[in-house]
Amino acid sequence: MGLEEDQEQFLIKRVDRAVVDAMRVIDASEHTRESFDKVLKLLHKLVDDQRLIVDDIVLQEKEKREAEDKGDASAMDVELF
């Protein structure tokens, strides 16, 4: 490189340290991405489960109203006679 021996050694160590630091950042980024993917997957599952619960509650309420309406209609019939 045209540098003195100690200068070359300094630059090589500095570059090696920068590469190692970059690899640590990349590893941390990959770990963060994996964690984010896990959280995202769990959130999707929670949303799906919540949707099933809400659908079930809505269906139960609908059936309850229909039964009440049916009961009211038959009660009206009894009152008329």
Descriptive key words:
about 80 residues, rod-shaped
Which structural category do the helix and sheet elements fall into?
mainly alpha
Number of helices: 1
The major beta sheet can be summarized as: none
H and E order: H
Give the overall shape, derived from the CA principal axes. rod-shaped
Question: Rg to the nearest angstrom?
Answer: 35 Å
Share in helix: over 70%
The residue-averaged pLDDT reads: 89
**DSSP, total strands:** 0
List the helices and strands and how they pair.
Blueprint: H1 5-80
Provide a concise account of the structure shown.
The chain is mostly helical and 81 residues long. Helix content is 94%, strand content 0%.
What features would you describe in this structure?
With 81 residues, the chain is mostly helical. It has a domain at 49-81. It contains one helix and no strands.
